[in-house]
Structure formats: structure tokens, C-alpha cells
Prior knowledge:
Fructose-1,6-Bisphosphatase, Chain A, domain 1; 2 domains; binds magnesium ion; manganese ion binding; FBPase_class-2/SBPase; binds 7-O-phosphono-alpha-L-galacto-hept-2-ulopyranose; Fructose-1,6-bisphosphatase; alpha+beta; six-stranded mixed β-sheet; metal-binding; fructose 1,6-bisphosphate 1-phosphatase activity; D-Maltodextrin-Binding Protein, domain 2; eight-stranded mixed β-sheet
Amino acid sequence: MSSITVQPELLLERILTLEIARVTERAAVSSARLRGHGKDKASDQAAVDAMRRELNKLPIDGTVVIGEGEIDEAPMLFIGEQVGTKQGPKVDIAVDPLEGTTLCAKNMPGAIATIAMANGGTLLHAPDCYMEKIAIGPGYPKGIIDLDAPAEEIILNLAKAKGVKPSEITAILLDRPRHADLIAGVRKVGAAVSLISDGDVAGVIHCAEPKTGIDVYLGIGGAPEGVLSAAALRCIGGQMQTRLIIDTEELRERTIKMGIKDPKKKYEIEDMVKGDCLFAATGVTTGAMLDGVKFGKDVIETDTVVMRSVTGTVRRVRAEHRQFEKFHLD
Ligand code: VTB
Ligand code: MG
Ligand code: MG
């Protein structure tokens, strides 16, 4: 039998892979309870409370660097909040306890509970603002995407590299008026546009999941979601380029305070997630990536994906929960 030596920090991280799955499971179940009730804020709060409760049980000395910021006005899991028992490694944590609050409130596909974790000081500390993003899956030559290139050129380059016609390329974008020019550019060269109403963490990840048929993510979404999806792509491969949209003086000051010297910097995955990381997401409502929570009389079922960048391992965890007390449901 071969014996593999694993560095202690890595071993602990490996254990955390399962621990963070628990964290997103709890958040997903708590918010799923309010699916379809039209209560964006209440379902978000339920996810935040559950995620925080669970994070505080973990053997980590954690700092939330991407959290529920000023925009959501959530009182917990704010940027800078310390979480965990403190008996463990220093880690940076990015959370979106309910990514797609509107999707959950309307019981539409694709709401997830999501988290990323990395060694302390290695995740981008981004404010809760907008971010320009472009992302593709693995298998393309490095440097093929550029935020400043017109959509037409990006599509043509991707088609060439993939060895297909531009009409066989599909771009995914948030359905927003601000994307009118990008959408027109994609369509002009004959490619298809797939529009989502919310949830661009999954939108970016779809680029690295061949079964979705999505080749490229384009457009402006949340910066927190940008860092979370960069962590996922760091695990499964792909390329991403992003840039914060700092358009007010107040935001500029906040950004400087967070340690960002050049607000116009174009970030690559390695700039947003500098080292090893873990990523997890649990489905709240059923979407292309994950099934939603199923409530039975005696069993609650959850569907989670957990990724680890050091090995590139992706696990799908389908859990049946028989002890309901742990979810603190009423
Ligand atoms: C973005 C997107 C998210 O909300 O943050 C969006 O990244 C908010 O953008 O995935 P709008 O102000 O245009 O709605 C999500 O869709 C959900 O949090
Ligand atoms: Mg979100
Ligand atoms: Mg959220």
C-alpha cells in the first residue's frame, strides 16, 4: 500500500471540503422553506442566519471578505465579520448565502446557496458593486478573451479556436437593458444568446459544463458573484477577466479602504483567487446545475457541488437529512 504524505494545512482543507458542503446545505434548506412566497428579504435573511450559524461551528479562523454588503443591507455576514471557532487555519471566505433572492421568492429555476474559502489574504476583497465580466471554460488558448474587445471579435475568436462556426457558439448574459449592445454584437456574427434573469455565479460556471451548451459569459453582474465564480473556475478550469465598476466617489473611497490601488485593474482568476481554494453550492430551486431542496415528511433532500482547486476534484453530494432540528425550521 502506498503512503502519501499530505501537508497538515492541506489535510485540514480537505476536511473543510465536507464542512463547507454542510454550510451551503443549511443555507439552502432555510431559504427553500420560503420559496415562492414572494419574500426576497426574508428568504435571504433565513439563508444568512443559517450560513452564519454553521460557519461559526467550523474549526477555522475565518474572515468574511465577500459578504452581504451595504447593497443588501443584511445585518450579518458582512464584509470583515470574523467567523469560526478560531481554532484552525486563517481563511478568507466569500459568501452569497442566497444567490438569486428573486429566483427564490418567485420559485424560479437557479437559486443557490454558495461559498468559497481560501487561505487568509488570498481572495480579492471586492466591494458590493457591479463588475464587468467575461468567462469561458477550459480548453482554449490562454489570453483568448479580453474585456475590451468587441463581442463580435470574441465570438469569432472562440469559434475559430473551438473549430466551429460562430452560429454554434452560445453566449450567456443577464437579461438587462445595459447589455443591449453586447447582445446585438453576439447576434450580429450569428451566435446565440442565452438570457438569464438572475444568478450569474451559475451562469459563469455553465461555461465550464459542456452539457449546458454555453461557451461564454459576457456582461455586468455583481462583484461578489464575480469572485465566487472565479473560485469555481479556479477549481474546474477556464478563463475569466473582470473589472470593478467604480462610478461614485463614495465607492471609490470604499474601494481604496479595501486595499485596491488601481480600481480600473483587469483581474484574471489568479488575481481574484491567489491560491488554493474550495467552492461549494447547494441548489435552492432546481436549475441547470443543481436540484432544489426537496421537503418530505421524514426526509429533506439536498443537492450540492463541492470543488477543490488543489486537485480539481468535483464532488456531487446528494444528501438525505433525517434530523430536522439541525435546520432550526419552525
Ligand atoms: C447581479 C448578478 C446576480 O443579481 O448581482 C444581479 O451578478 C444584480 O444585478 O447573480 P441587477 O442590479 O441588474 O439586478 C444577481 O442576478 C442575483 O444576485
Ligand atoms: Mg447574488
Ligand atoms: Mg445574495
